[in-house]
Design brief:
Number of domains: 1
Strand content: under 5%
Shape: rod-shaped
Mean pLDDT: 80
Radius of gyration: 42 Å
Number of strands: 0
Helix content: over 70%
């Protein structure tokens, strides 16, 4: 083999390495430029996500306050109803026995008729 046509070992080893370094630098430059270009878009998306999370948190807080308020209203209504029923039971015990008897009779008829 003549030395002019066959590549030397040194050239074979260096050429791919130099090409890889050039390619790696080009790839890194491309990645950096894409990253720099996409950064404003990502910042806008992140900002929009923060706005959405803040809105959802506000709605959840309002819902929790509303549920708490409604719970207090229901508890107050329950106390009024129980107080009114207790007062009625003390004032009209015979009427209450009649109501309980009729309710039991109707419930029994419904259960036995099926």
């Amino acid at each position: 083999m003549d030395s002019q046509n066959s590549p030397s070992i040194g050239n074979d080893v260096r050429t791919p390495v130099v090409r890889n370094v050039d390619t790696n630098v080009g790839v890194h430059d491309t990645i950096n430029s894409v990253s720099d270009a996409s950064r404003p878009a990502l910042d806008r998306v992140a900002s929009g996500a923060h706005v959405v999370v803040d809105r959802v948190a506000g709605v959840a807080m309002h819902a929790a306050e509303t549920i708490g308020s409604k719970g207090e209203q229901l508890k107050s209504a329950q106390q009024r109803l129980v107080g009114g029923t207790r007062g009625y039971m003390q004032q009209h015990p015979l009427a209450l026995l009649g109501i309980v008897f009729v309710a039991g009779f109707v419930a029994g008829r419904l259960v036995w008729s099926r």
